[in-house]
Amino acid sequence: MLTIARISLFTAPAFALLLTGCSSPSSDSSSPTQISAEQLAAYYWVVQGATDRNGNPVEAFEGDFERPLQLTLNNNQLGIAGSCNLIGGDYRLEGPTLTPGQLVQTMMYCDPEAVMLREAAIKQQLETAQEVQLSSTIPPRLTLTNTHGQRLNLQGEATPETLYGSSGEIMFMEVQAQRVECPHPLMPNHQCLHVREVVYDETGIKQSTGEWQNLYQEIQGYEHRPGIRNVLRLKRFDVANPPADSSSVAYVLDLVVESEVVER
């Protein structure tokens, strides 16, 4: 079992810093609910599509994209992930009106062009005040209508904090470049991430490293690429009443701190 040192979680979503779960059955109820900043912060809001003032689909949001656009609204900070660039800024919520501040972004170009067009479209959508409608469905649905009558439709995906019922704890983990064989009675031919804990002081200076160990579970949000060694900042959550063959903790990627190509 991996032993870790823990630091109380204090960070906002990683992309916001750079710029300044158990599923439930669907419900047919779509009645609106009162809107609060806490409700908006409890979910990642995944873009399902958009319509113009006449109700016609906005073409830039149509098509088959590798990653969906995802909106976060937390601590008066707005962030957009899933596109070529990271986009973020502040916002103000007053009753049913959400007013974004000036949005800033990283400046990269990506192929295909459709990705860039979608990115431009969501920035344009969020340039003005938004009328907010939040459904009481499970999962919840969020509708943002700007002053031009353009409507953005989103579906909520519970954040780890919502899913596991706590704010989580920060830890750092180094992941070796290659997976290793780790036979398991329930998982024949299984290959594990080979990991060790890394401890930093308050100034970011490395203090110590733990022993290399096999990690039988996956790290949520992390996609391992063979040949790449990474140091990850993770959020660690206790899992209440896990199944007999599952871990009592969950690891969620917060930020990739360091990456290195390692040749065999």
Automatic annotation (TrEMBL):
Annotated InterPro entries: DUF306_Meta_HslJ, DUF4377, HslJ-like_sf, Hsp_HslJ-like
Bilayer-crossing regions: none
Start and end residues of each DUF306 domain: 40-152
Keywords (A to Z) from UniProt: Signal
Keyword Cell division (UniProt): no
Domain DUF4377: 174-258
Signal peptide residues on this chain, from the entry's feature table: 1-16
The keyword Oxidoreductase is annotated on this UniProt entry: no
Name of the protein: DUF4377 domain-containing protein
Organism: Pseudomonas jilinensis
